[in-house]
Amino acid sequence: MKEYITLSEEVRAAKEQGKPIVALESTIISHGMPYPQNVKTAREVEQIIRDNGAVPATIAILEGKIKIGLSDEELEMLGKNTEVAKASRRDIPYLLATKKNGATTVAATMICADLADIRIFVTGGIGGVHRGAETTMDISADLEELANTNVAVICAGAKSILDLGLTMEYLETKGVPLIGYGTDVLPAFYTRTSEFDVNFRADNPETVAATLKAKWDLNLKGGAVIANPIPEEHAMEESMITGVIQSALKEAEENHIHGKDTTPFLLAKVKELTEGKSLDANIELVKNNAVVGAKIAVSLYGMK
Question: pTM above 0.85?
Fold first, then answer.
């Protein structure tokens, strides 16, 4: 196993010193935002985690290695290089074997974090059940990973381009707890609310950390979703974003876009139709999640 994994100096030192570590994905850099905002945001998010008492570990697959923690040069390369593969569970072995580069999705980041014994992971939003999945079977691998891998994901809910009701049903079936951080309802990425209630509410990092500790102490396999709403001042108006998403979904259908190409297409189309406002919201919600994720990691570490 060790032959495939490389820790950055910062992460290695954190492990040796017993510091809390927070995993970060790299798909958001390669496929989620344009350059240079992607690299700038990645560096800012890493610094937010440091400022809140934890150590960031951005994860990617580079030249036949799972990199846990990236250098400035590696972040820059991921941000600029348009040939980096979008890596989920199925892609990891092939990318390692062929020494190709891959930016890790939520699912792949969870797997790699678990291999490195990192339990807290911060991202923007999780994938889920796509609209029309009752005929297409288009369901994100993120959900299956949450059912099986002991990593908690701090996010702004599920992306509102998805079928949120079916996503909630899938998580319930798989026994994945959905904890609202300071909220009773599921946030929908760009907006603070949806029509769906969360399973549990937690108003501080200690409650989340204690819940995670109890879950894993009992060997209840799988992760958890900690849904943290986008800050009020950066949230988008619900009816406007709903209309934009409907328009983007229609265009995706007309262009026969499906599978793992769907989300990047829809996010790019939403950005275009909102004149960049959705990208600004995306950046702010990730930063907000980084604050909460770092605090949860610090609290969880203090309970060991």
Answer: yes
Q: What is the pLDDT of residues 24-38, one digit of tens each?
A: 999 999 988 889 999
Distance, CA of 114 to CA of 136 (rounded, Å) = 30
Q: What is the pLDDT of residues 88-133, one digit of tens each?
A: 999 999 999 999 999 999 999 999 999 999 999 999 999 999 888 8
C-alpha angle 30/22/72, rounded to 5°?
A: 45
What are the sequence ranges of the domains in the chain?
2-302
CB-CB contact of 227 with 177 (8 Å): no
Q: Let me know: does 260 contact 86? Beta carbons within 8 Å.
A: yes
Instruction: Establish whether 145 is a catalytic residue.
Output: no
Look up the CATH superfamily of 2-302. Indigoidine synthase domain (3.40.1790.10)
| Annotation says 159 is catalytic | yes
CA 70, CA 72: separation in Å to the nearest integer?
Answer: 7
Of the listed 25, 46, 74, 145, which one is catalytic? 25
Catalytic residue among 46, 76, 86, 159: 159
